[in-house]
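Anyone opening a protein record will find just a pair of labelled lines. A complete record is shown below as an example:
=====
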Amino acid sequence: MSSTTLYRLSGISLLIGGLFAALATVPVFFTGEDPTSPIAATAALLRIIGDMLIVVGLPGMYSRQAQRVGLLGLIGFLSTLVYVLITGVVNDTIAAVILPFLASAAPSLLKGSPPQGLLILFLVGSLLGVVGSVSLGVAMLRTTVLTRWVGLPLILGVVLNLGGSFLLPAVGTTGTVLFLLGLAWLGFGVWSSRQPTSQPELPPMPFGPEM
């Protein structure tokens, strides 16, 4: 399989994953994080699919422009990848499977504070999200390999997501949707971009001894 095909498949994975996760985040505006809501649990389950597609597509996105984005892009890629794994895959798995089970089997456990280790994990994930989104967004604004302005929704999305912790929850949800749409836009850029043509090989010499 050629590198062009791999890049395009990575772009499609990132595009579909970002759109899928963004659409599955919309019900949060209406249900919140209610663990007893079947709509919230179903939406979280759908977001897991989108999160996994994003994780699959991110390496190809970075590889496509690794030489142009430099160290800042590498930091952004790695931080964003871990951020999606922690606050996306892990958090949505808890929301889709564990919390609904506890809500029906042991509702008293939901009234207490989450385990300290889990809080630290999500705190680290959130910090990596800020570092990753800003680094990747700035790197995209500086490069011309893919769509340059895709860096704006990545940066603005994580700022709103962080602000949702201090303002209305809907602000944070809006930031999450904007961030995911930014990743989808980035995936579209990878899928639709053309690979640079390689230099043609020199034809063999028609005469003379073979080397």
Notes: The radius of gyration is 21 Å. Residues 114 and 120 are 10 Å apart (CA to CA).
